[in-house]
Amino acid sequence: MSIRFFSPILRRRWRRFAEHRRGLLSLWLFSLLLGLSMGAELVANDKPLLIHYQGAFYFPLVQSYPETTFGGEFNTEADYKDPYILEKLQKEGNWLIFPPIPYSFNSIDNQLTHPAPAPPAGRHYLGTDDRARDILARLIYGFRLSVLFALTLTLIGVLMGILAGAVQGYFGGRTDLILQRLMEIWGSMPELYLLIIFASLFNPSILLLICLLSLFGWMGLADYVRAEFLRARSMAYVKAARALGASDRAIIFRHLLPNALTPVITFLPFRISGTVLALTSLDFLGLGVPPSTPSLGELLQQGKANLEAWWISLPTFIVLVSLLLLLNFIGEALRDAMDPRKES
Amino acid sequence: MATPLLEIEQLRVDFHGEAGCIEAVRGISLTIQPGETVALVGESGSGKTVAALSLLQLLPGNAHIRAQAIRLEGRDITRLQPEALRHLRGQQVAMVFQEPMTAMNPVYPIFRQLAEAFLPDEAGEGRSQQALRRRAVELLAMTGISDPEQRLDSYPHQLSGGQRQRVMIAMALARRPRLLIADEPTTALDVTIQAQILELLARLQKELGMAMLLITHDLPMVQKTANRVYVMRHGEICETAATTTLFQSPQHPYTRQLLASLPSTLPPPRLESAAPLLQVRGLHCHFPIKRGLLKRTVGHVKAVDGVDFVLNRGETVGIVGESGSGKSSLGEAVLRLNEGRGALWFDGQDLQSIDRATLRGMRRRIQVVFQDPFSSLSPRLTVGQILAEGLEIHAVEADAAARQRRVEAILTEVGLPLAHLERYPHQFSGGQRQRIAIARAMILQPDLLVLDEPTSALDLSVQAQILTLLRTLQVRHKLAFIFISHDLRVIRAMSHTVLVMWRGQIVERGETQALFAHPRHPYTRQLLTAAIHLSTVPAG
To answer: Which residues contact A261 (CB under 8 A, 6 or more apart)?
Structure first.
């Protein structure tokens, strides 16, 4: 039997969360931004959304067409920024729709009139970076990468943390003692140095980064879950379940876990914001995602290298701060909503 | 008549919270004469503590206190400034709380906390540390605590419950208040200690000539100590009378119901052909005490130390003793929930030597109901899920529909409406939760039910209902009970035989009536004397 999702406890918590106007607003804003950035390809892309060419419709986002389709000469994928192709696509009743920002995160604008980094202008709303790439496009993709990365890492960390904490808390005694000592040894490894070493050993990739950060990210949470399990283990309802003949597994999953999730959920937004910050810092140091990947840290690094180009650092800073603020406001409201002292 | 010490007229207290406005106290009036003991009696949630706390304005910020007048020695104290209010607290009105452990600050020794009580006027100029200590020792000695000198440097956790309550009383009396509000001062204590604390309060009251407002749900205690009684219900006072009058001829139906709730019946008759169901021989339950870095075992707490008894089908064995006497460990050992050693024979089967799988099967036949109905039900499961769990584990019914019928049948049997199946434990009162816990145990149709203080956390009238339910179930299903309690009245009302436990051992055993009439062991006598009210309470 599953735990009813909309239990009265949950409904009451949601009500308390909703009473927190700032938290609720932050949650909506965050969801909106996340939703928008999920469709980043539709918002910022150097391929048109739709092409009407000689009576037929083409969708370059879904399918790649060789230049020859549109009367070009090469068999490679059409470059829709090429004035030659563009001209062909716009004359004689042909038309095409570009996204609001006609640049992807890695499209280099070869027709800049100003040397890169170019300041904001009609062509690039927030200017370009020093490789003539559109800042706004990179910000949108970078935001998505940061959030997705943080969500993945948090999910892995939460699952591992719950598992480790549950095992320690439920079995207690020697198991708990040994696992705690192992965690202490593991936790005292210098995370940053390991990252530097691994960054030089392997080709940097997002997957590698997720693996490495996951190895360390679960420990803080495991302690909370362990404490909750230790507390709940001696509750009368667990004794009653054992007296009923319930197995260890049933007790853990049915009786203990639902009650141990409070700290997990409470810390979720804070963990996410912490991970966003961690990724940004690593990218800033050049230890994070591979070069050319759109990332907030890489943008900050560029801003530092080109101090006079304020249009690089300032928007990145604003995006980063807003993201962290939103997450923290959500976390604050969530913390209040889950506060056991407010449960009657 | 002289000016009353305290006069309350039309006191109302509302709480404004998430769920709207809750009227905790709805216009009560109350007077206390100097030197008089007045009892405020009511069940939990009746608003008696709120009323007392509102006198000293100790309620949280969302409480709204309105009163026509609250006069202390003729002076209206409803609109006192914080400064004057502080002066009032402790100086003229002092309070003793129910739980002495949480009412004290765990990180300071007794002396610092006592000294704080008389700090403002006596600690100032010229009062040396020695003088303060002398004063503190005097105060402690007054409460009859042993070695008052040494106690000053103890921390709260180093004292026993009774000692802590004595320290609390000493703190309350430090400034010779005119009125002492005692909020359930003995509820958290053992029976023998309760009697001592009550005696102490009565003596000090006489010596110091103060008045006492005793807030309690314990009727026998009221009968012993109070001059006048106010009976409170749903935030209103429904009856007030001199104590003897009230106990002899209660007027209000609620008071009558309350008095009738005192357990006074006899256990149901024994089965005619009673075969032994459970045989316990030489049961030991030792918990190792571990010390030091390497956690070496330096000794054992002998929670249960060589207990044997036989329980027949359909009968009840009552196990009585104070907290720490090992009664609960004994219950858990019978349930095989702890590492108890010794012979345990249940219905001809040796419970100690069977393998895990068989044991889990056997668990169906031995079930348990715990004391605290708030922690004994999984908070995230509905009542229906809680009740069905046992059936699922033991695969009692094959299909869900049959299980559902069983669940509904048992819910009806314990007296709860079917609509409650979808609700969660926190939506129920203590008594209802205890019914659910009983239903959870009963649904597996066990032969033996271990009842570990099943009514101690409940109000008197609810306790009476639960006891009636248990008795009905026992007769209908030929159940055997192991009834663990510290409450002699409940034990006498439920048990066929009684075991008196003291420090892990059974010091006396016998048929209930015989044991209560002629206790032999000094400890049993002490227990019975402590509960003197036992025989003086009318049967309803």
So the answer is: none
A234 inside 8 A of chain B by CB: no
Per-residue pLDDT tens over the stretch B211-228: 999 998 888 888 888 899
Distance from C-alpha of A277 to C-alpha of A324, rounded to nearest angstrom: 8
Residue with tokens 């992807």: A104
- Tell me what pLDDT residue A147 has: 92
Among chain A residues, the shortest Cα distance to B438 is held by: A240
* Model pLDDT, residue B119: 59
Residue A108's Cβ-side half-sphere holds a number of Cα atoms within 13 Å equal to 6
* CA quadruple A324, A326, A330, A332: dihedral sign: positive
Q: Which residues of B touch A (CB under 8 A)?
A: 18-19, 332, 335, 337, 360-361, 363-364, 366-368, 370-372, 375-382, 385, 388-390, 392-394, 423-424, 426-427, 437, 440-441, 444
Q: Does A259 sit within 8 Å of B370, measured CB to CB?
A: no
pLDDT in tens, B477-531: 999 999 999 888 889 889 999 999 988 899 999 999 889 888 999 988 888 887 7
Q: Which residue type is seen at B485? A: S
Contact flag A237-B378 (C-beta cutoff 8 Å): yes
Separation of alpha carbons B326 and B486, rounded Å: 11
Which residues have CB under 8 Å from B515's CB, separation 6+? B498, B500, B508, B509, B524
pLDDT for B421? 87
Q: What is the pTM of this model?
A: 0.76
A18 in contact with B, Cβ within 8 Å: no
**Residue A25 in this model has a pLDDT that exceeds 90:** yes
What is the mean predicted confidence (pLDDT) over A60-89? 83
Does residue B532 contact residue B194 with C-beta atoms inside 8 Å?
no
Q: Are strands B497-502 and B211-216 parallel, antiparallel or unpaired?
A: unpaired
Q: Which of B364, B367, B370 sits opposite A236 (nearest CB)?
A: B370
Would an 8 Å CB–CB cutoff place A4 in contact with chain B?
yes
Q: What is the pLDDT of residue B160?
A: 81
CA distances from B521 to B304, B503, B518 (A): 19, 14, 9
What is the C-alpha to C-alpha distance for residues B136 and B129, in angstroms, rounded to an integer? 10
Which chain B residues are Cβ-neighbours of A235 within 8 angstroms?
Answer: 375-376
- Chain A residue with minimum CA distance to B369: A240
Handedness of CA B339, B344, B348, B353 (dihedral sign): positive
Residue B540 pLDDT class (50, 70, 90 cuts): very low
Quote ipTM for the complex. 0.72
